[in-house]
């Protein structure tokens, strides 16, 4: 009888192992617009609470990049590999690895926030599209956190009255101008873009108009766009 029960328990365990889905590696890209004089500087605690995996077995790759007056800015990449816990895993070591991972990431964020920068241009759109296109062929969960007011000041400028009139009267023409400067990949399905900015009464109109341009360009490619942290971003 004892042998029979042992076989049943072993069978249940093996079945559970066969049906379990291995954790995937999530890919999170964080773009922070450093061209805003009074722009929001996200702190490490704020970010970690939003992107922390729900399962200790889950892996995550974080790419951190500042937006400046050039398109291609240096990137920092932090990788926490997937892990197998339970009978074959070391949960204590995994907790230590996770703690070390987020400390390194947090220290980099805080160091970046301390830097004093001044830029004459703002390359938001092209920086974003370059990152979306990089994520396109990657499998797994893919999310982009964009901390920006979307105030482009490069090929298109919110400080140019003619450009603002064009945005007001013909946003589809502005969208074509954007696409001409940087074309998104054909298939961006599976990518979630969170634009993290709280517009003031003064710039709410510009932000809404520019957001509409972004949506008209990226949503047909499959990008899911949300504004603000409406919920914890689950990995």
UniProtKB/TrEMBL annotation:
This is Uncharacterized protein. It comes from Polaribacter cellanae. It comes from the Bacteria. PROSITE patterns: PROKAR_LIPOPROTEIN (PS51257).
């Amino acid at each position: 009888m004892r042998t029979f029960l042992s076989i049943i328990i072993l069978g249940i365990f093996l079945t559970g192992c066969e049906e379990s889905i291995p954790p995937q590696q999530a890919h999170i890209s964080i773009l922070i617009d450093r061209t805003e004089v009074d722009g929001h500087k996200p702190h490490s605690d704020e970010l970690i609470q939003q992107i922390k995996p729900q399962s200790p077995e889950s892996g995550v790759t974080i790419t951190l990049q500042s937006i400046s007056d050039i398109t291609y800015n240096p990137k920092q990449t932090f990788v926490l590999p997937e892990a197998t816990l339970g009978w074959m895993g070391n949960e204590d070591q995994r907790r230590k690895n996770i703690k070390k991972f987020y400390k390194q990431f947090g220290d980099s964020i805080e160091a970046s926030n301390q830097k004093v920068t001044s830029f004459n241009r703002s390359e938001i759109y092209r920086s974003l599209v370059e990152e979306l296109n990089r994520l396109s062929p990657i499998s797994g969960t893919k999310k982009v956190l964009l901390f920006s007011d979307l105030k482009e000041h490069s090929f298109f400028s919110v400080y140019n009255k003619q450009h603002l009139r064009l945005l007001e009267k013909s946003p589809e023409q502005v969208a074509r101008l954007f696409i001409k400067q940087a074309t998104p990949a054909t298939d961006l399905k599976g990518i979630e873009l969170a634009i993290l900015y709280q517009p003031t009464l003064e710039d709410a109109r510009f932000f809404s108009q520019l957001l509409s341009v972004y949506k008209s360009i990226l949503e047909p490619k499959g990008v899911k766009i949300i504004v603000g942290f409406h919920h914890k971003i689950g990995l």
